[in-house]
């Protein structure tokens, strides 16, 4: 993997995680765009960029898939499949403290900082389910179909989507290689179980993840598959279309409008995978060895290391910090945008991401795959 491609993946990880964080904080702190009074250019730009939360999830899924593909490419097929599942599962076990800590933050907020009703009266933000059944269900990746997401952490359903995508890929790869009836039956059984069990939202995210796997597994290419400008234009067009389409199911006749809203993030995944494939090509000359990374390179790496935990941990901490501001300092939820609101959004984002990086150092987990 070239240094440029590695830098690109690192930057994509933390920028996507940061965008998702800002996206969620905005929903708590700011009113909806339609009710903003006297919209300035700053307000319009902020609402547009901070609305790219689900597009950021698509980028994260593609990057996660690329890492999985690169991991499989480096090892012989049978050992690589088992090693990928083992590495993913070890990451999951290391994230157990994150799950428990998120529950403790929710318990503290719901019992001591619920004067604003954030934990009880705003199910549109997050439904707080703090029970042992929800905890164990999330521990065994049974959310969202058989168990609610644990606590306020609505992002945990994406974690389950990644895990089952990885399991499905490994079983189908084994069935393809061996042609043994047992392997084929195992892959078909899991595929059928997921079809009956998972909600319809699983399949677009599986597709996005597999796009990343294809880039990591099939590259690097001797020369770019697309012209770089064409790849970047495709990504930009997909992002703008996805953002402007919003949740409008009336763009196409039923039921196609609903399907478009469900699958539009695959377009973002295709655009990002195209850019990644352009950058993932064989370097013209080997990189110089022994050079110490620059300060910016080390910062980029640290921010990327915290991205996975930031995706999975920021919601409980974000809820607690927002409730703290509302109860102790009287800062109401969902206000008109202004300098104080922008400053508070920046402070909450910085605290949540900083806490995620600190957790990475404590529990020793970086990438999920």
UniProtKB/TrEMBL annotation:
The keyword RNA-binding does not apply. Keywords: Membrane, Transmembrane, Transmembrane helix. The keyword Protein biosynthesis does not apply. The chain crosses the membrane at residues 7-25, 45-72, 93-112, 124-142, 154-176, 188-217, 229-247, 259-279, 309-330, 342-363. This is Acyltransferase. The lineage of its organism: Bacteria, Pseudomonadati, Pseudomonadota, Betaproteobacteria, Burkholderiales.
């Amino acid at each position: 993997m070239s240094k440029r491609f590695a830098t690109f993946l690192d930057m994509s990880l933390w920028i996507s995680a940061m965008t998702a964080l800002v996206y969620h904080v905005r929903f708590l702190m700011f009113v909806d765009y339609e009710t903003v009074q006297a919209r300035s250019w700053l307000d319009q730009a902020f609402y547009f960029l901070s609305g790219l939360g689900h597009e950021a999830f698509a980028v994260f899924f593609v990057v996660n898939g690329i890492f999985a593909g690169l991991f499989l490419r480096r090892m012989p097929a049978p050992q690589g499949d088992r090693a990928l599942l083992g590495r993913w599962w070890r990451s999951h076990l290391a994230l157990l403290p994150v799950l428990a800590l998120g529950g403790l933050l929710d318990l503290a907020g719901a019992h001591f900082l619920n004067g604003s009703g954030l934990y009880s009266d705003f199910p549109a933000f997050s439904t707080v389910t703090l029970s042992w059944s929800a905890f164990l269900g999330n521990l065994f990746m049974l959310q969202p179909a058989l168990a609610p997401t644990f606590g306020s952490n609505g992002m945990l359903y994406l974690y389950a989507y990644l895990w089952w995508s990885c399991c499905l890929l490994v079983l189908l790869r084994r069935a393809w290689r061996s042609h043994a009836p047992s392997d084929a039956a195992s892959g078909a059984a899991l595929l059928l179980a997921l079809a009956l069990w998972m909600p319809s939202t699983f399949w677009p995210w599986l597709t996005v993840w597999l796009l990343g796997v294809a880039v990591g597994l099939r590259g690097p290419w001797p020369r770019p598959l697309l012209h770089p400008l064409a790849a970047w234009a495709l990504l930009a067009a997909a992002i703008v279309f996805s953002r402007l389409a919003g949740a409008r199911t009336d763009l196409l006749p039923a039921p196609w409008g609903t399907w478009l809203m469900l699958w539009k993030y695959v377009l973002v995944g295709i655009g990002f995978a195209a850019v990644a494939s352009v950058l993932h090509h064989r370097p013209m000359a080997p990189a110089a060895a022994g050079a110490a990374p620059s300060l910016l390179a080390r910062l980029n790496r640290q921010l990327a290391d915290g991205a996975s935990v930031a995706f999975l941990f920021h919601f409980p901490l974000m809820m607690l910090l927002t409730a703290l501001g509302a109860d102790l300092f009287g800062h109401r939820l969902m206000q008109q945008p202004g300098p104080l609101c922008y400053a508070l959004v920046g402070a909450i984002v910085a605290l949540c991401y900083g806490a995620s990086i600190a957790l990475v150092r404590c529990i020793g987990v970086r990438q999920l795959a």
